Amino acid sequence: MDQRELLKKITDAVREAGSIMLHADRSQSSIDEKAGHGNFVTVYDKRIQKMLKESLLKILPEAVFVGEEEDIHASVEKGYAFIVDPIDGTTNFIKDYHMSVVSVGLILDGEKYMGVVYNPYSDEMFTAIRGQGAYLNGKPIRVSSELLENGIVLFGTAPYYEDLSRRSFEMAFDYFKKALDVRRSGSAAFDLCSIAAGRAELFFELSLSPWDYAAGALIVEEAGGKVTTIEGKPLSLDRGCSVLATNGVCGKCEALAE
């Protein structure tokens, strides 16, 4: 299948998933807690993931499917693999705070291949194919060229890992003193896309799972940015890790994370 045709089919499935989120009846959305502080799953997380699994595996039957709401995750080292977060920003979704996205990363032989992140509330569809640039609603996007002192820092609080909370806020304060300001959206996938679109210069979170960044990291890279762990190592796609994303030109911004 042609790459563009494949991406179009994936974005169509993701847009349908976003429509489910957009028209959700929260009075009918039962909420369960998972391990970790403030870690929730709703009936809509499960419903959207089920729909995406069916739709995406029809598009690429040979692929494996790795979804956040599954207990057992397949290997992504060989062939195609979808890494999916049906609702990134579930607490936002529960609170009707319109900063939740659908995130689908397509992996090929253990490497990021395609990324799709969709915010149905703003109707923003971020996409990337490896080696072909990053796009927002079909228009090319690039990271900013600002230094950290003229930039905005986005961060996640790693809320499911309470032992990391204090360090997260200490790092955010350090960055705050060196940048224009800091922001916290509650969706790592959307924050990564904000770096890609040039809306901010740096994003960090001390612990994330592959479905949080598999799509967004590729979008940042294809927009000209840089994504590593806090320690400067490549991201893992088969287990969680920290994430540091920058526009690649914001001075010594990475040094603060060390």
Key features?
alpha+beta; five-stranded mixed beta sheet; D-Maltodextrin-Binding Protein, domain 2; single chain; Fructose-1,6-Bisphosphatase, Chain A, domain 1; 258 residues; seven-stranded mixed beta sheet; globular; 2 domains
Tell me what you see in this structure:
The chain is an alpha+beta fold. It contains six helices and 14 strands. The chain has helices at residues 3-22, 43-59, 90-94, 165-178, 188-196, 210-222; strands at 31-33, 40-42, 64-67, 80-88, 101-108, 111-119, 124-129, 134-136, 139-141, 152-155, 181-183, 202-208, 226-228, 241-246.
What layout of secondary structure does this protein have?
Blueprint: H1 3-22, E1 31-33, E2 40-42, H2 43-59, E3 64-67, E4 80-88, H3 90-94, E5 101-108, E6 111-119, E7 124-129, E8 134-136, E9 139-141, E10 152-155, H4 165-178, E11 181-183, H5 188-196, E12 202-208, H6 210-222, E13 226-228, E14 241-246
Parallel strand pairs: 3-4, 10-11, 10-12
Antiparallel strand pairs: 1-2, 4-5, 5-6, 6-7, 7-8, 8-9, 12-14, 13-14
Helix pairs in contact: 1-2, 5-6
